[in-house]
Amino acid sequence: MFKVLTICLAIYYLPYVSCMTEEMLELAKQLHDTCVGETGAKEDAIT
């Protein structure tokens, strides 16, 4: 019973947990660009 409830709650809340705001996406992009700039890593080596 508890296992089924846990799975149902996880499915219900997953979209709310996995979404990122535009501000968070911009900050992540800034961090990525800064790290790439400082290390000199090539984009194709990362992706």
UniProtKB/TrEMBL annotation:
Signal peptide: 1-19
Keywords, in A-Z order: Signal
Domain of life: Eukaryota
Name of the molecule in the record: Odorant binding protein 6
